[in-house]
Write a structure and sequence with these properties.
With about 475 residues, the chain is α+β, with helices and mostly antiparallel strands. The chain is built from 14 helices and 24 strands.
Length: about 475
């Protein structure tokens, strides 16, 4: 009954876009590569933003805002940074009817302008650490855009911190990586691998980059969030220096970390099916929908609607907020009303018909499995609360089982190449790597575009490099990625 949704097995890209359209998450904007995030999609982002923002504040960070426009000369101060971002930059050359003396770059990321401000704010070791996060949009001109995954403008958060010692900055980098992976697992039901990126995949201007990597339902990887140890690269470029406890001048050590609306695309591709969107209850804008059903307008008005309002009050009290809604689209047939909420990913549907009303019970349907259960009126609120927690856990468990079933060991280059060859198993490949960036480039070419997604944080095993044969190489996860 998945009207207007291409089956996932037939065309995965079309399926993904059809789910977004049917769930009313986003539309293409008039400017190529940009998107309009619709209320249902923005409601998901608001919930993601809320849980992330709370976690950031619990770890001592505060929010601020920095300008959208960055002087072009700022990007040129850090050589690796400008080289990495130049191809993606949108540049303003005219304003107020005149050509600007210096072009302004629409921020692709904010390390440079924030480094400029930290130079002014940091004079002494007493001014450190600075722990700031920013919620904003950024522009990176995409040649091959795709809604939520790669758009020319997208919403995100970017944390930027400055510290007196390298040890503190490294601790911050690891702490925020852990915050990300905890929230992605617990709130988004995304089982992510997390660890250090290879040199080829490192953020431009960073000493080390760490990332969370998730497997989508087509067995490709998606980078869900990153945390960067920037060393003193930006501190030296922007003179973020201070008088240390010994009275000597020293450069600060900085970090940055970010996640974006790409997380919505990750949830779509991890949990959804051929009927439409499936959402983890913790993130769903509407967690339960009550659907009164009757062909008799009088019974609807006099009996079912008052009962639905009473149920709504009890459900929202049990769920701790306005998370349940009543469907009053009486101009639609019941089946169409059901399907409307199914395609929008509402985790639980509660059907209140005349027969259910007379029996003092309701039919409760879970979105992820379509399982239906008749529940007594008195037990409904507690049942739905427990069911939502069960759905959340089940979505994570299914995604984790899928990842584990599609993770393979590659003992040599031939095995690695066969995994990513046309008709190969795909997924994630575990292999040891201890070669150079050039060696990594050769592997990418030989393995059909598969790259190192990360060296898992919780896996310290060592072995012979799959490419050079040198001993003592770290375990790495290879995959084709978005």
């Amino acid at each position: 009954m998945a009207r207007n949704i291409t089956p996932r097995e037939k065309n995965y890209s079309e399926w993904y876009l059809d789910v977004i359209r049917a769930a009313e998450l986003a539309d293409h904007a008039p400017v190529r590569g940009c998107m309009v995030v619709r209320p249902n999609g923005y409601g998901i982002w608001e919930n993601v933003q809320a849980v992330f923002d709370r976690a950031f504040k619990e770890t001592g960070h505060v929010n601020a805002y920095f300008p959208l426009l960055i002087p072009n000369s700022f990007l040129e101060k850090e050589a690796q940074h400008v080289e990495g971002f130049s191809p993606e930059c949108a540049v303003v050359t005219h304003a107020g009817g005149e050509q600007l003396e210096e072009p302004y770059v629409i921020r692709p990321t904010s390390e440079t302008v924030i480094g400029h401000m930290y130079h002014q704010w940091v004079q002494s070791w007493r001014d450190l650490p600075i722990l700031i996060n920013q919620w904003c949009s950024v522009v990176r001109w995409e040649k091959r855009p795709r809604l939520f995954l790669r758009t020319s403008e997208f919403l995100w958060q970017e944390g930027h911190t400055a510290h007196a010692t390298a040890e503190e900055a490294v601790e911050e980098t690891q702490k925020m990586l852990d915050v990300y992976q905890t929230l992605m697992n617990r709130e988004l039901a995304l089982p992510v691998l997390y660890g250090e990126k290879s040199e080829n995949e490192r953020f431009p201007g960073a000493d080390r980059t760490y990332a969370c990597e998730a497997m989508m339902s087509d067995k490709k990887a998606l980078q869900a969030g990153t945390s960067h140890f920037l060393g003193q690269n930006f501190a030296k470029a922007f003179d973020i220096s201070f008088q240390d406890k010994n009275g000597e001048r020293a450069y600060a050590w900085t970090t940055s970390w970010g996640s974006s609306t790409r997380l919505i695309g990750a949830m779509v591709m991890t949990h959804s099916d051929d009927d439409g969107l499936v959402l983890p209850p913790r993130i769903a804008p509407v967690k339960a929908i009550i659907v009164p059903i009757s062909s008799d307008e009088g019974k609807l008005r006099d009996k079912l609607e008052p009962e639905a309002e009473s149920l709504l009050s009890e459900l929202n009290a049990a769920l701790g907020g306005p998370h349940a809604k009543i469907d009053k689209q009486y101009h639609m047939r019941p089946g169409d009303r059901f399907f409307h909420h199914l395609q929008r990913g509402v985790p639980v549907r509660i059907e209140l018909g005349e027969k259910e009303f007379e029996r003092g019970e309701l039919a409760v349907v879970r979105r992820d499995t379509s399982a239906k259960e008749n529940v007594s009126r008195a037990a409904l609120a507690g049942y739905v609360k427990d069911l939502l927690a069960e759905i959340q856990n089940d979505l994570h468990s299914r995604a984790l089982a899928f990842r584990e079933a599609n993770t393979h060991d590659a003992e040599n280059m031939e095995e690695l190449k066969s995994l990513f060859a046309p008709g190969g198993k795909g997924g994630f490949a575990r292999a040891y790597f201890g070669g150079s960036p050039e060696d990594e480039g050769e592997i990418k070419y030989a393995a059909g575009g598969a790259t190192i997604r990360c060296m898992p944080q919780d896996d310290d095993t060592r072995g012979n490099c799959i490419y050079t044969g040198k001993p003592g190489a770290r375990r790495a996860i290879f995959a084709k990625a978005y």
